[in-house]
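call fold(seq) -> tokens
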Amino acid sequence: MLEESSLAEKVTLLEALASRTRFRVLKSLCAAEEMNVRELRNELGLPQSTTSKELSFLRMGGFINFGREAQNHYYSCHHDGVRKLLQTLDKGAPATNNPEMTR
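ret:
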């Protein structure tokens, strides 16, 4: 049986990945060693407000790391659960022709 704290962490991770934007942010951060906000915004084509909101959510959940150098804020993802789940999804993601599933 799962402990309540372990279950809560897994549910929070799935909630984080349920958002297409957060999913894209996590994939980008896992693929890179680290990124600053500007690099992330440019890669994903997101507005500053959306980027900040999603980074804040992921940081509060403990899924990403944060660092600061002068005025630059850097983010990275070294969370084993996130990395393993993203790898699993990449391996087993079925192709779909349903446009509703690609939004």
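The chain is about 60% helix and 10% strand.
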